[in-house]
Fold this protein.
Amino acid sequence: MSRVCVIGLVGLSALSLSANATSWAALPMRVLRSLIEADAVFNGPTVSTYFGTPPQEVNLTVDLAADWLAAYAYDCILCSGGTSFNPLLSSSFQSLNSVWTNSIPGFSGTDVMDWVSFGGILNAPDRQFALIESGANYTLQATIQNGHLGAFVNPSNDTSSSAHIFSQLYQSSQLLNPVVGFRFDPSNPKITIGALDPADYDGDLNWVEINAPSASFDSLNTFSIDGLKGYNGSFIPVGNSLTANLDSLANTIAIPNVSTYISSPGFMGPINPAISNGILAYPCNVTTPYVALSATINGVDYQIESTGSLLRPYTSFSPAEGYCSVGIVNKSDTLLPSSVTLGLPFLRSVYLAYRFPTDSCPGYYGFAFPAGANRTSSQISQTPTSTPTKSAQCLVFTTPTSTPSPSTEVTAQQKLLSSDKYNVYGGEDEAVYLLGVDDLSQMDFLAPVSAAPAPTSTASSNSTKDPMIVPQPTQSSGKYDVFGMPQHELVTLVGVDDLPQMVWNTTELK
């Protein structure tokens, strides 16, 4: 995964603030401007996280449905992404000499321990995580880059729950609240750990309890929903007692039966769709179609963005000429307890709050509208149908009065950068810093003797010292071809006759 092109990394010290100061962190996330329909294209969100001493920046993939923490090793085989962790650069790194328990063929690693920090504000010393050393699994190459931040605290396993990095930060009194906020929308993508910023959302938070029916299911972040609505605002008949799970690694909305949605103009709207290679597509070569779909949760309708989320831009990956793919697919994974999987198109359309479970409180998701999104006042003023039973106990949070300002420090990667910038051959971009150049042995370049000033003798006539004689360069006795020049333009070379002669041994052919 060694794509080494580092231009002006700005790092934050993992050691800058006290580990016991109650606080919160607001970190920018990186998301695509538009989702792309292609198996080999990474659509996921990433957040900068720091590992080691001095800190190394790794842009971890944010996964709402899992709980494990991992960083790709700098020498990982076939890992995808542009950042990684080099344990050789960290003075606090410890190997635990054990194979990572979640290892599978093509995606494996070892258990290690080191300092982990969010923005240099929230710090977890001696934090265990997986160091991924093999990333050849084709599916995971396209869904996880650089490393993995599992943002779900598993309530079904006490050991797993207490070992999660969010739980550890809260137990060490670093977090203002046991809550995380997410904006996956491209206008202002961010994650807040320890507090919810009221400036990030519009309307009231609509809280629902996470209630996975069994710990044996693949996805545990399941909750009840009222249903999905189409173009005419009526519910699409996809079953009763619907449940949903959130998946930030999926770039689609998965429903029980896509044919039910496209069978009626009342659900789909006035569109003539096509299904090519199993992918739903709308004609987009004349006008931009609108994909009509909303998710209704606890009485509130959440419109799912069409352009850039449900409707993909027309590219070489599009399923048919003149058609744009649509991110609505059949839900084929029967191991998941949920009826619907709400992937990135939904997540990019809402503000998400996650109250992770603690001693006496279960986990909750809260939904609102992203601040600055194109939503009407009637949409924002919707009110939830019900309120969770333990709201007074579990869903009252301290509102932050200020945003912490982390101190900056040179990261381990920056220490390897050259002190000067260098032009890139054939490139038109500005000059870049290079890794490790200053550590290379310096070469002494002798100026051509012909460029030196002529020697002048200051010795007196009775001096006993011999005068200094500077050797003069001599022209070669023969002429030589110059690569790339016409053959008739032979030239003489300076000093070539003074080079050691090479002896070529030949064998006579008989």
